[in-house]
From TrEMBL:
SUPFAM superfamilies: DHH phosphoesterases
Coiled coil (residue ranges): 321-348
Any GO molecular function: nucleic acid binding
Keyword entries, A-Z: Coiled coil, Exonuclease, Hydrolase, Nuclease
Gene: recJ
Domain RecJ OB: 468-576
Superkingdom field: Bacteria
DDH domain sequence ranges: 92-241
Presence of keyword Ribosomal protein: no
Recorded family membership: Belongs to the RecJ family.
UniProt keyword annotation of Ligase present: no
High-level lineage: Bacteria, Pseudomonadati, Pseudomonadota, Alphaproteobacteria, Rhodobacterales
Gene3D superfamilies linked to this entry: 3.10.310.30, 3.90.1640.30
Protein name per the record: Single-stranded-DNA-specific exonuclease RecJ
DHHA1 domain location: 360-452
Length: 580
C-alpha cells in the first residue's frame, strides 16, 4: 500500500496512510447499497459495518445492546444485598476512586439512593496520603459505623483492607484486572475477573454500577415495587466511559450516545454548572466529555480535595453545584501549570535516555502525584511508546503509566509487583499505577522495558497518520458533519474520521494566543473552509503555513462544527500538513 497522496514524511514527520483496498471496495459497495454519502461509507467500512447493519449502527438502541446484568458473576447477589440494605434502612457507605469513573460511579449510587429517600456516606481516599483504593484504616473505620460498604472503581485487589472491614458486608463493583484470588467479601462484580469470559471487559466501572442498578430495579419489579428512572442517569455513565478512555464499542457506544442526549437536557445541576464554567455553548459531544468536563472533575482528585468531583456529580442543589464547579475549574487551571513544569522536566530526562527504547520513563523528587499520569500520557503521545512517570517523596515513589495500542501495560506491571520489584502495582491494558522504592527504581524500569519489548514496544515507528479518504472543501457541509456524527461517538478504539484536503491554497493565516494557528483555505474554486490547528507552533506546521508564500499544501484533520454567536459553521481541526 503506497503512501496516501505520496506523503511519506509530512511536516510532523509522519507517513500518511489511506484506507486499504478492501476497505475502499467495501465503502464503494456500501455507497451503492445504502445511498449514504461516500465519506460516511468510508467510516462505516473501516468499522466493518455491512450494508444491512448500517441503519442500526447509525442509531444504536440501548435495549438491543445493553448486556444482561446477570451475565456477570455475583451480580444477583450484589443487587440483592444492596436492596436488603435499602429495605431495612441499613447504613451504607460508598468507597470510590478519585477519578471521573470513580466519581460518576459513586454519584450513580448516591442519586439512586436519594431517589429512594435514602442517603449514604461518601468516602474518597486522598491520592497523596492514602493512595489508590481501599486501605485498612479507612475500611475499619467505615465498617464500625456502617452495615454495607460498596467499593466502586477499586477493591478487586484489596484483600487486606476488605478483611479489615469487620462487621460490615462489602460489595466490590469494579473493572480493574483481577488477581488469581478475589478478596473475601459478599460480592465482586467485575468483567475483568479472571473467571469471566472477557466479553464485557471494555466496560468502565460506572457501566458496571449502572448494570447493578438495572438488576436492582429488575428485582424490585419482581417484588411489585418500582425503582428510580435509570435512563435519566446515563449522562453520568457517558461521562465516565469517555473520561476513563473505555473503548467506544458495543454497549459503550449506545451508553454514550444516549447519555449525551440526557446531558443535553441540562437536568443535572453538577453537569450544568460544569458545562457553564467550561464555556460549552453547544450540545455536548464525546469531545467535550473527554477534554472539557473530564479534566475538571478529575482536578479535585489530582491536586485538591479528592471528593469534590463525586459531590459535584451527585448534588441536587444548584448553588452547591456552582460553588463546586468554580472550585474544580480553578484547581484545573492550577493543575495545568503544575503539569507543564513537570512535563518539560520529564521530557528532557526521557530524551537523555533515548526516545526509541521500548519504555520511555522519567522520575524526580517532589513531582506532584496528581499530574504524573497526565504527563505520562503526554510522553506516550509524543513518542508513541509506553511511558511511566514517577514522583518521589523520600524513598518511596508513586508513578503512573500509559500505554499504546497493542501493548498491555497493566499485565506487565502486575508481573513486576509479583516479582517483588514494586511495592504494588496494577491497572489495565492502557493505564497502570505503581509504587516503587528508590533502590529498586533502575532494576524495575529495566525489567519493565524488557517485558514491554517482548510485546513489540521497541519496534513501533512514528505513528502513521491514518486517513479515511479525501474531501474537497465544498463537500465539507454541515449536513455531512452531522451524518458523520451518527457513526460516533468517537474516542478510544473508535477514532473520529480523518480526511485529507489535497492541493489547497492558504488564503488567510493568523497566529492565535501562544501557539495556535487559524487558517482559511480553498481549492481555487468558490468553496473555502476554516481550520484551527492547536499547538501548531510546537511543531513545524505553524511556521510553514503562516509563511506559506503562495505554496500549496495537502491538509489533514477531523471536521467539527464551530458555534459562534449562534451561527454554525464547519471547521477543520487541522492535525497535519504536507507540501503539495
Amino acid at each position: 500500500m503506497g503512501d496516501f497522496l505520496n506523503v511519506s514524511s509530512s511536516l510532523t514527520g509522519r507517513r500518511w496512510v489511506g484506507p486499504s483496498i478492501e476497505i475502499d471496495r467495501a465503502s464503494e459497495a456500501l455507497e451503492q447499497d445504502t445511498t449514504l454519502p461516500r465519506a460516511l461509507c468510508q467510516v462505516l467500512a473501516r468499522r466493518g459495518v455491512p450494508a444491512h447493519e448500517a441503519e442500526n449502527f447509525l442509531a444504536p438502541a440501548l435495549r438491543d445492546l445493553l448486556p444482561d446484568p446477570r451475565s456477570l458473576r455475583d451480580m444477583e447477589k450484589a443487587a440483592a444485598r444492596f436492596l436488603e440494605a435499602v429495605k431495612n434502612r441499613q447504613t451504607i457507605a460508598v468507597f470510590a476512586d478519585y477519578d471521573v469513573d470513580g466519581g460518576s460511579s459513586a454519584a450513580l449510587l448516591l442519586v439512586w439512593l436519594r431517589d429512594m429517600g435514602l442517603s449514604a456516606t461518601l468516602y474518597v481516599p486522598d491520592r497523596i496520603d492514602e493512595g489508590y483504593g481501599p486501605n485498612d484504616a479507612a475500611m475499619a473505620e467505615l465498617a464500625s459505623k456502617h452495615d454495607l460498604i460498596i467499593c466502586v472503581d477499586c477493591g478487586t485487589l484489596s484483600h487486606g483492607p476488605i478483611a479489615a472491614a469487620k462487621g460490615a458486608d462489602v460489595i466490590v463493583l469494579d473493572h480493574h484486572l483481577g488477581g488469581e484470588t478475589l478478596p473475601e467479601c459478599h460480592a465482586v462484580v467485575n468483567p475483568n475477573r479472571q473467571d469471566e469470559d472477557g466479553a464485557l471487559a471494555y466496560l468502565c466501572a460506572a457501566a458496571v454500577v449502572f448494570l447493578m442498578l438495572v438488576e436492582a430495579n429488575r428485582q424490585m419489579r419482581e417484588d411489585g415495587a418500582k425503582g428510580p428512572d435509570l435512563m435519566a442517569m446515563l449522562d453520568l455513565v457517558a461521562l465516565a466511559t469517555v473520561a476513563d478512555v473505555a473503548p467506544l464499542i458495543g454497549a459503550n457506544r449506545a451508553l454514550v450516545r444516549q447519555g449525551l442526549k440526557v446531558m443535553a437536557r441540562r437536568e443535572r445541576p453538577g453537569l450544568v454548572a460544569l458545562s457553564d464554567v467550561s464555556r460549552m455553548d453547544t450540545a455536548p459531544t464525546s469531545y467535550h466529555l473527554g477534554f472539557l468536563l473530564g479534566p475538571r472533575v478529575n482536578a479535585g482528585g489530582r491536586i485538591g480535595q479528592a471528593d469534590l468531583g463525586a459531590r459535584l456529580l451527585a448534588t441536587a442543589d444548584a448553588h452547591e453545584a456552582q460553588a463546586l464547579a468554580d472550585r474544580l475549574d480553578q484547581l484545573n487551571t492550577e493543575r495545568r501549570d503544575i503539569e507543564s513544569a513537570v512535563r518539560a522536566a520529564a521530557m528532557e530526562q526521557a530524551e537523555e535516555r533515548g526516545l526509541n527504547a521500548p519504555l520511555v520513563w522519567a522520575s524526580a523528587d517532589g513531582w506532584h502525584p496528581g499530574v504524573v499520569g497526565i504527563v505520562a500520557s503526554r510522553l506516550k503521545e509524543s513518542t508513541n511508546r509506553p511511558a511511566i512517570v514517577i514522583g518521589f517523596d523520600g524513598d518511596e515513589g508513586k508513578g503512573s503509566g500509559r500505554s499504546v495500542s497493542g501493548i498491555d501495560l497493566g499485565a506487565s506491571i502486575q508481573k513486576l509487583a509479583a516479582e517483588g520489584l514494586l511495592v504494588k502495582g496494577g491497572g489495565h491494558k492502557m493505564a497502570a499505577g505503581l509504587t516503587v522504592m528508590r533502590d529498586k527504581l533502575e532494576p524495575a524500569m529495566e525489567r519493565l522495558a524488557e517485558l514491554l519489548d517482548k510485546q513489540g514496544a521497541g519496534a513501533i515507528g512514528p505513528a502513521d497518520l491514518k486517513l479515511d479518504g479525501m474531501l474537497m472543501p465544498g463537500a465539507a457541509s454541515l449536513d455531512l458533519v452531522n451524518q458523520l456524527e451518527a457513526a460516533g461517538p468517537f474516542g478510544a478504539s473508535a477514532p473520529a474520521p480523518r480526511f485529507a484536503f489535497p492541493d489547497v491554497e492558504i488564503r488567510f493565516a493568523k497566529r492565535i494566543g501562544d501557539n495556535h494557528l487559524k487558517i482559511t483555505f480553498s481549492d481555487g474554486l468558490a468553496a473555502r473552509l476554516e481550520a484551527i490547528c492547536f499547538g501548531a507552533y510546537d511543531t513545524p506546521i505553524g511556521a510553514a503555513l503562516e509563511n506559506h508564500g503562495g505554496k500549496r499544501f495537502h491538509l489533514a484533520g477531523r471536521l467539527d462544527i464551530n458555534t459562534w454567536g449562534g451561527r454554525q459553521a464547519v471547521q477543520l481541526r487541522l492535525e497535519d500538513a504536507a507540501p503539495a
